[in-house]
Design goal:
The structure holds 3 protein chains of 3 kinds.
Chain A lengths: L13 H23 L3 H9 L4 H32 L10 H35 L8 H23 L24 H29 L12 H33 L12 H34 L7 H14 L15 H29 L8 H24 L1 H7 L3 H31 L1 E2 L2 H27 L16 H29 L2 H4 L3 H4 L3 H11 L3 E2 L35 H8 L11 E4 L4 H18 L2 H20 L4 E4 L1 H11 L2
Antiparallel strand pairs in A: 1-2, 3-4
Helix pairs in contact in A: 3-4, 3-5, 3-15, 4-5, 4-6, 4-13, 5-6, 5-20, 6-7, 6-20, 7-8, 7-9, 8-10, 8-13, 9-10, 10-11, 11-13, 11-14, 13-14, 14-15, 20-21
Chain B lengths: L6 H20 L11 H34 L17 H28 L13 E8 L2 E6 L4 E4 L1 E5 L3 E8 L4 E5 L3 E6 L5 E6 L4 E7 L11 E7 L1 H12 L4 E2 L1 H7 L9 E5 L4 H7 L17
Parallel strand pairs in B: 1-5, 4-10, 11-12
Antiparallel strand pairs in B: 1-2, 2-3, 3-12, 5-8, 6-7, 6-9, 9-10
Helix pairs in contact in B: 1-2, 2-3
Chain C lengths: L1 H34 L9 H4 L2 H26 L3 H31 L8 H34 L3 H33 L1
Classes of the chains: A mainly alpha, B alpha+beta, C mainly alpha.
Chain lengths: 676, 297, 189
């Protein structure tokens, strides 16, 4: 009846149990709050069933933030374990838990934090920046989002029911095969990624078509903002890389479920093929994440230098080059597999060639600031932090692209330090910059600068403290994924420094959340609400006076922006633009402000927008059921999941009545309200 | 933000202090940078060279960042402001060009070093090499000396200044064989054989590890690599040959079951073909592992 | 005009989707190419493939591709009865193809040559099976379309879906040609 699901699956060690109880309590708290404030209907109508990319974007970012907390908790456990588990002491968690924790950390941070933030920002900004009212396929967009949420729920339910994979974030076989990992852990890994991955693939199609087909009139390719170019490159990579992931995960699953021999040791399987396939996806994945971050930095630097982006054509060329090259470097992840000198040298050289366009981008950003008027807002701080740290990461990357050097640092903490250097310094700092930059656009509220600055400093110092020791530890011969080591090695002091850095980063994350809270809520009046009274009036008032006044964006253009998203109100009306703007120049809005003949009466026309629908949520819900049942071999329930999902999908796709019309009269009423 | 223009200086300062500090904490313990073998030495030289070369890009980036943010801060009313200035052919040629030259130099070095330091390439010294077959097990290392007729667990011994031909396989999840002070690293995978060539230039005991996640016992899957004088080595071989512990297929099957923290053990070898039979366990294979220089299958 | 624009958009989107599906198949083809000699003492392609049988499968699928083109022609003329006829024919041919494929699979399994036997057979069943799965999805799609056209006739939305379906079906045909060549023909030669 329940496959291999028994009560055994609910037994956990104390630390995991603590995590589960904490998680369940917070879910309970949310449910209580929603019920208390009678917000369920509002939630369903305004958010869960919404097809508005601005709403979906916000939901993505909330989910990614929650997952960032989960991933950070995993990171904290690893840092504490490695700082304490020396010689006679065995630290705070068992080997098995430790291995699950690092596998979950990597998986969650890449798939559910970085990808979540990225698609969140894309949803918020891409349509606005190209002067469009929506994405190309609004329902598909909602479905993608809900599949992402289904992936999140699945991977986190492994905490409560059963266990997670202990085979590392990329689950190399034969370790991840059924012989060495007979439990449900690897299956949780496979299915949460499979479900979320299909969502990402559909998002890739959606944004590509949006950019190609939905640009405002006059916005030729070479007049697109550079952020849009970077998204275009990133989405092309999604389209080529994610199907490989889908196929690879499917094959690994077939090995495990049906006894096939793709990647097994015996039976004529070939594990090296998995490693090739997974990195043929995995390497482009890094660029899928980092390209939009590059795009964000380009926007931020130009805006806060009040100057045109330097070398636009070079930037586009560099983006194109990186996009292409990222597909022919995957072998550098396993020079040590013994492919031979010619192959290794080829892939090594291709890898270092990527450093050229990347370097060009950095110089172009620097010269965007040159002869500009630099305003040092928080987005700009993230940018400067990025330039300084990313350069170090780039240099260590070039170092490792030399195969003969890689042999000495591969699988060591040097490698771990390097990719965190790229992902934190490049991707995460980029998304943080984007969040601070566009926050006023989609909320009408400017994020508190004081707290933001503090958060930045904790992040950057924390980052240096956490990861610079790992470079040195790697050179000392410390390999990754060790839950215990000998005291004689002399590693402990460095691991302790690294743990302190981790703590700083967690404080930084806390400050970022505080930053949003103090920016959005008026603490002086909020404390008076009965539910919050208990928190303590004095603390809130003190905090309030510390962080200073709340700031709002009433103009729609708080930063003296250059691109179209700043031409509409903050937050934008649900139809984004009452009249679709016409683009004549690259920095379209900057040019409009210069010529400034806004006296013309706008010519409104009826607007067609998609109706809300819960279909995406239902399809994803059924996928979640199907994924969960396959993991536990509950075949009847898996069939229910598949068929249910299929029926929902067919029903939605057969629906011809999915749009509603907003009449000119409605637009005029709304516009006069917005500008009042 | 008023102090923003000083930010890059602060970051650079923090970086210098922290990087300097962690190297101090590392002390003389940094094995990759204090090699005891020929390959590791060459690899260290390469690391140094690449680091120096990358400074040609890092230094200008840092200097420009510091200088530009300082001078062109919005509060500096003396700075020139040209909001439409967005390209300059010479500048762009310079920063396509400089990285290009750096990478070009590094490419040549990469091509050469990839071949010179290819793990599959035998080290050409006027000395008879020692062949050692390595089997990664759950979770210990089995070293087989086919010519000497002995085998050991978790300890590998060899004479100094002698080329070592390691042949590696696994009867376990994929492992990676690494002796940081001697150099290079190569995967050990079941059903196939990879190669690694090393040479110790100093007498000493070095730490060897499995660098790739191999399951529960991963963290403790270490071994010692001991380079001794030729006399010492031969004495040890003779002792081991006399040992009462014999390694045949039965003993091997027992050994291959998962276990943690196995003590160093020596065996005399009964089955000359042990290594090949461990590979053959995984059936008739037709994967062709790349066979540059000398075929490994 | 607006309707036309969104048609254009979904056709373009569907092309992109087909391209991603191509990448998926390419991964499976690459895997098959790597594993095709890993027979692990089991049968090779030469031992189990019957070319005449596969050729008949191929002809059936090609014919169905042709009838789906006739369906599109009928849709252009707005003749919904004809569209239903050709859609039905296409589906029946697809169903026959699927039946043949299932019979081939079950014969292999009953002879002891299931997917557990070797890396080669795993890759074979997965590659051909994935194509079969696509055909199954196509058949479900065709059934839904028939119901829609029966109820609503040829309107812009059903027309758009017919075009997409026909693209999908042709695509599966092309994939099959590759399977026929790379798996069966090269397996026997």
């Amino acid at each position: 009846m329940f496959g291999r699901l028994t009560l055994e699956a609910f037994k956990h060690d104390p630390i995991t149990t603590g995590g589960i109880i904490g998680g369940l309590l917070s879910i309970l708290a949310i449910i209580v709050l929603l019920t208390y404030f009678k917000k369920w209907k509002w939630l369903w109508r305004e958010w869960l069933t919404s097809l508005d990319p601005k709403r979906i974007g916000v939901m993505y970012i909330i989910a990614a933030t929650l997952m960032l907390l989960r991933g950070a908790a995993d990171a904290a456990m690893m840092r504490i374990q490695q700082a304490t588990s020396v010689g006679g002491s065995h630290g705070i968690i068992s080997t098995d838990t430790f291995q699950q924790v690092f596998s979950a950390h990597g998986t969650i941070m890449i798939f559910f934090v970085a990808m979540g933030f990225m698609f969140g920002l894309l949803n918020l900004i891409v349509p606005l920046q190209i002067g469009s009212r929506d994405v190309a396929f609004p329902f598909l967009n909602s479905l993608s989002f809900w599949l992402y949420i289904a992936g999140i729920l699945l991977i986190n339910s492994s905490l409560v029911v059963g266990e997670f994979s202990a085979a590392g974030w990329l689950a190399y076989p034969p370790l991840s095969g059924i012989d060495f990992s007979p439990g449900v852990g690897v299956d949780y890994w496979i299915w949460s990624l499979q479900i979320a991955g299909i969502g990402s693939l559909m998002s890739g199609i959606n944004f590509l078509v949006t950019i190609i087909k939905l640009r405002a009139p006059g916005m030729t390719l070479m007049k697109m903002p550079i952020f849009i170019w970077s998204v275009l490159g990133s989405m092309m990579l999604v389209l080529f890389a994610f199907p490989i992931l889908t196929a690879t995960l499917a094959m690994l699953s077939l090995d495990r479920l049906l006894g096939m021999h793709f990647f097994t040791s015996g039976g004529g399987g070939n594990a090296m093929m998995y490693i090739n396939l997974i990195w043929a996806w995995g390497h482009p994945e890094v660029y899928i994440l980092v390209l939009p971050a590059f795009g964000i930095f380009s926007e931020v630097v130009a805006t806060f230098s009040s100057k045109r982006l330097f070398g636009y054509k070079s930037m586009v060329g560099a983006l194109g080059g990186i996009t292409f090259l990222s597909f022919i470097v995957w072998v550098h992840h396993f020079f040590t597999m013994g492919a031979g000198a010619d192959v290794n040298a080829f892939f090594g050289i291709m890898t270092m060639i990527i450093a050229i366009p990347t370097g060009v981008k950095i110089f172009n950003w620097l010269f965007t600031m040159f002869r500009g008027r630099i305003r040092f807002t928080t987005p700009m701080l993230w940018f400067l932090g990025f330039v300084m740290t990313f350069t170090i990461g780039g240099a260590t990357g070039v170092l490792m692209s030399v195969p003969a050097i890689d042999f000495q640092v591969h699988n060591s903490l040097f490698l771990v330090a390097h990719f965190h250097n790229m992902i934190i310094g490049g991707v995460l700092f980029g998304f943080f910059a984007g969040l601070a930059y566009w926050f006023p656009k989609f909320t009408g509220i400017i994020l508190n600068e004081r707290v933001g600055r503090l958060a930045f400093w904790f992040w950057i110092i924390g980052f240096l403290l956490a990861f610079m020791p790992l470079y040195v530890l790697g050179l000392m011969g410390a390999t990754r994924r060790l839950d215990h080591y000998d005291a004689t090695l002399g590693w402990q002091s460095l691991f302790i420094v690294s743990a302190i850095g981790g703590l700083c980063i967690i404080i930084g994350v806390g400050l970022q959340i505080l930053q949003i809270i103090v920016s959005v809520f008026d603490l002086q009046t909020t404390w008076n609400k009965p539910l919050l009274r208990s928190v303590g009036r004095t603390i809130l008032i003190k905090l309030d006076s510390l962080v200073g006044k709340r700031e709002f964006d009433k103009t729609g253009d708080p930063w003296d922006g250059r691109t179209l998203e700043w031409s509409t109100t903050s937050p934008p009306p649900f139809y984004n633009f009452a009249v679709i703007p016409k683009v004549n120049e690259r920095d379209a809005f900057w040019a409009m402000k210069k010529t400034a003949d806004n006296d013309q009466k706008p010519q409104y026309k009826d607007i067609k927008l998609p109706k809300n629908t819960g279909a995406g949520l239902f399809v994803a819900g059924f996928s979640l059921v199907a994924g969960f049942s396959i993991i536990w071999h509950i075949w009847w329930l898996a069939a229910v999941g598949f068929i249910g999902g299929l029926i929902c999908l067919i029903q939605r796709l057969s629906d011809d009545d999915t749009e509603l019309t907003i009449t000119v009269a409605e637009i005029m009423i709304n516009e006069s309200k917005e500008h009042a | 933000m008023r102090q923003g223009h000083k930010l890059p200086v602060f970051i650079l300062l923090a970086m210098t202090v922290i990087i300097g500090g962690v190297f101090m904490l590392g002390g003389n313990n940094i094995s990759v940078l204090s090699p005891k073998g020929f390959i590791a030495f060459e690899q260290r030289q390469l690391i140094m060279f690449a680091v120096l070369l990358s400074l040609f890009v890092i230094a200008p980036v840092f200097l420009l960042t510091i200088g530009i943010t300082w001078h062109y801060r919005a509060s500096n009313k003396n700075a020139k402001y040209s909001p439409e200035w967005d390209n300059n052919r010479y500048l762009e040629v310079a920063w396509w060009g400089i990285p290009l030259i750096v990478i070009l130099i590094l490419s040549v070095v990469t091509w050469r070093s990839s071949h010179d330091l290819d793990p599959m390439r035998a080290i050409s010294v006027n000395k008879k090499p020692l062949t050692i077959q390595v089997v990664a097990l759950q979770w210990k290392w089995l070293f087989i000396y086919p010519e000497q007729g002995i085998a050991t667990i978790n300890q590998v011994r060899f004479p100094v200044d002698t080329p070592l031909n390691f042949e590696l396989t696994a009867d376990a999840p994929m492992n990676s064989f690494w002796i940081p002070e001697l150099g290079g690293q190569i995967y050990a995978m079941s059903g196939m054989s990879t190669r690694l060539h090393l040479l110790a230039t100093q007498i000493g005991t070095f730490r060897g590890v499995s660098a790739n996640l191999s399951g529960m016992g991963h963290a403790s899957m270490n071994f010692t690599a001991q380079a001794s004088s030729l006399d010492d080595f031969e004495r040890w071989v003779a002792d081991s040959q006399q040992t009462r512990q014999r390694l045949d297929m039965n003993a091997y099957a027992h050994l291959a079951t998962p276990s943690l923290n196995n003590p160093v053990t020596s065996y005399s070898l009964l089955n000359d073909n042990l290594y090949q039979s461990v590979i053959n366990k995984f059936g008739p294979h037709t994967h062709k592992l790349n066979s540059s220089n000398d075929g490994s299958m | 005009m607006i309707q036309h624009k969104s048609d254009d958009r979904s056709t373009f989107g569907f092309w992109i989707y087909l391209m991603t599906d191509c990448v998926l198949f390419a991964s499976l083809f690459a895997t098959f190419a790597v594993l095709r000699n890993n027979t692990y003492g089991g049968p090779s392609g030469n031992d189990i493939f019957k070319l005449p049988f596969v050729l008949s499968e191929t002809i059936i699928l090609l014919t169905s591709s042709f009838t789906s083109s006739l369906m599109i022609l009928a849709a252009r003329r707005g003749n919904s009865a004809r569209v239903l006829l050709w859609l039905m024919t296409t589906s029946l041919l697809g169903l026959t193809f699927l039946g043949l494929e299932i019979s081939e699979f079950s014969k292999l399994i009953s002879e002891g040559y299931g997917w557990q036997r070797s890396g080669f057979l795993s890759a074979f069943f997965t590659l051909v099976g994935t194509h079969g799965l696509h055909i199954t999805i196509g058949l479900i799609w065709a059934t839904v379309l028939m119901a829609q056209i029966y109820q609503r006739g040829i309107i812009s939305s059903t027309n758009r879906r017919l075009t997409a379906f026909s693209m999908f079906w042709h695509f599966l045909d092309i994939v099959w040609i590759f399977i026929f060549t790379m798996v069966y023909l090269m397996g026997v030669l």
